[in-house]
Amino acid sequence: NSVNELKAAEVESGKQLASTEIEREAMAEKEREEKEKFEKVQAMFTAQEANVYRQRQDILISAHGFQFPSGQSEIQTDNFPLMNKIIRAIEIFPESQIEITGHTDSTGSDKINLELSTARAEKVGKFLVDVGNLSKNRIKTTGFGETRPVASNKTEQGRAENRRVEITIINK
């Protein structure tokens, strides 16, 4: 009887090991697919347009290539190619939520910069809905003004890098 119990335990152990191996392979395949999607998004943008980062399963597109006239939030026609790339990147992740954050340099008052960054994020969100046909429910917009610089505000290049819109594709 104990021999049969040992054999049964061995069979069960083998089944668990096979199940674990299948799960590991499935996870590895999912990771490969996610990496491929990220690399596809990354390849869409030039260094002048945006930096693309992977944050676990999420994708951050830091779009510093936007040309907003100083103090304005309207999306200029020369920004349409960049916006269309952002739309195509989002389409790769159809189940995602989209978070758009606006940022400014430190020129001007804190209050005006906060309002400006919020307006820019909202205009990008509106473009994604109106032109990209994305659901408004998928999009959240926030302005941070000058509070999250990525470069020095002491140089023109640094200020230009700080004037950006970031789009995070949140995959659940």
Listing every helix as H and every strand as E from the N terminus to the C terminus, the arrangement reads: HEEHEHEHE
Q: What's the count of strands?
A: 5
Structural class by secondary-structure content: alpha+beta
Strand order of the largest sheet: 1-2-5-3-4
| Helix content range | 40-55%
What's the story with the biggest beta sheet? 5 strands, mixed
**First and last CA, distance:** 49 Å
User: Beta-strand level of the residues, as a percent range?
Assistant: 15-25%
The general outline is: elongated
Mean pLDDT: 91
Unreliable parts: none
What does this structure look like?
The protein is α+β, with helices and mostly antiparallel strands and 172 residues long. Helix content is 48%, strand content 17%. It has a five-stranded mixed β-sheet with strand order 1-2-5-3-4. The model has no long low-confidence stretch (mean pLDDT 91).
